[in-house]
Amino acid sequence: MPELIETPTPAAPAAEPAVLTEPAPPAAATLTAPEAPVAPETAPVPEALEVPQAPAVPEVPPLEPFLDPLRIPPVLRPEADPETGRAELTVTTRPVRIQLHSQLPPSLMWAYEGQVPGPTVEVRRGTRLRVSWANGLSGPYPLIKVETRVPANIARPGYDPAADTFDRKVAALPPWTVVHLHGARTSGVNDGWTDNAVPPGETQLSEYVNDQASCTLWYHDHAMNITALNVMTGLAGMYWIRDDEETALGLPDGAREIPLVLCDRNVDTDWKGRPTGVLMHKVLRDAQDVPRPFYGPYNVVNGVVQPHLDVAARWYRFRMVNGSNARFFTLRLCHEDGTPVDPELVARAFHQIGTDSGLLPEPEPLPEQGLTLAPGERADVLADFSVLRGMRVHWTDTATNPPGPGPSPEVLQFRVADETADDPFTLPGRVSPSYVRLSHATAPDHEHRWIVLTPPAVTGMPMMWEMETVEDASSVEIPSDGIVQVQRPGQPLLTLRRVAELFNDTTTIMAREGGWEQWNVLNLGGPVHPFHIHLIRFQETRRQNYDGRGFQRLVDGDGTVRGHGTVTPVTFTGDLPVTGADLGWKDTVRVGDTRPAPAGSGQLVSVLGQFDGGSGRYMYHCHILEHEDESMMRPFTVMPGPVMDMHPGMHGGGGHGGSGGHGGSGGHGGHTS
């Protein structure tokens, strides 16, 4: 018998979470807003979602942007027990029906505490928090998966039987979930290991020490093979850590501190082209027979398609995360007619004060071309709406990263009050006095790692290779499978050898707890990858362009493909400055050019950080969730130094400055900068 659920208290009438009732189909394909919200009733979850209907459906009319108010998730502030010094919290996942837009029927979704996004968890630095992530899910899997051969089809709702294929395996998926607190310094046992998902009725216990600087974290599902699908069902929420440095700034708070979880979604339609509300994960299967990531036609903020927000003419703080599966957002402020707001006004009104893992040293203006957020990236933004008093402006997506904006690029509208408001806040000249800029030259002794991201044009789908340095290039055949040579500026030719590529290959990266490492991530010319390392925060220390056309498919005379490697070295073509908000503390970094670039345009990004705050097994991966599920995720371990010294593969020495590594001098990844 399916579970009966209670409807959560709505935050806004036009976009309230509805109960589990099957919507009656609209009378026609024309989309109209309801005259008034209908009182919900509790009802059972259906046993299965319907298979997409045939024949091919007509074009669905666009939804009216800015019709519904922004939904604000509730805030959970667990208090520490005075005897134990530890706070405790239970968060339960539940199936609910959520109306993403007034012109759409409600959608069956999975939600933390019945909210999409989940409640914002707020803690003070040093407050140890034990969370019971309870799986209270039941009923069918709340989305359908479709692959299409027609590129234009991914930008429209519905199922085209002439070009689309319905994946029936998804209907058999159980509610199997595991929570990862993205950006947390925590032990491996609490990190949300991808295989350690729990079924309904069971609970994942995680304890977070929260011993890190004020930052904007977020929690989301991380189950092996199905992260992209589980997150799309609604399983994401924010988690804020506060400290004394942040408190001293007197930043806007309460109703003027607003979480913004951005994503994109798609829904199915019935045979007349009327949206059913059923979530649809529709992706393109390309000419190489490789499925592309998900890009939906609807921009969603806090579980509402293209909402609006009424604001006073005063300061606000927006804590933002791109929770999309794959879409990059570049947010540019526009007037109601779609023309960009004067850059001088934008520069006066909007200021970025934080990134993924902490506050910036000082406020940074938003880039004139717009604020870009890749999946997994966060931004902490202050807005002075007194500069825009009486105006209606909105963020529109102007991303140039393929496939570009959706068919309706509007994201979020601000309706600024006419009246002036008394606001004592002033923008501080210095945000984080504790910020220290890292550099390779001044960093403590540290290990080096090399990761290569392969272009799908060569390897069929993007792959993530762990590499080791080859000290004597004459010891390997060139070209040969898994060998990549890199010509860096002013340095000897670097030869790298692949040591792992699949998740279950041998773990080759073993980091010393408390040790520093520089990871060099080389994209050989494929799509931009948001590269995320669990446990640590880091700073970007270097970004360089490379010509990656020397990396090719290796084919014998009889046409047999014998692997992939460089036939000529990947060659340096120029430095890119690291400036502005890119100087901030991060845990997710974009590797590649977000602008259209010629084939073979590679990029090297180096990040430097300390592996402290926990030990155990962790993961790093591309945060395009379909890439993560398919192959672009690898494990690493962190061990106390004395424990690592007992490892059979350790023979002393190693690393840049003698910090040690796995597998002798330099370890896997070597000690080459």
UniProtKB/TrEMBL annotation:
It holds the Pfam family Cu-oxidase_3. GO terms for molecular function: copper ion binding; oxidoreductase activity. Residues 1-31, 647-673 are annotated as: Disordered. Transmembrane segments: none annotated. Coiled coil: none annotated. Residues 177-245, 503-641 form the Plastocyanin-like domain. Belongs to the multicopper oxidase family. This is Multicopper oxidase.
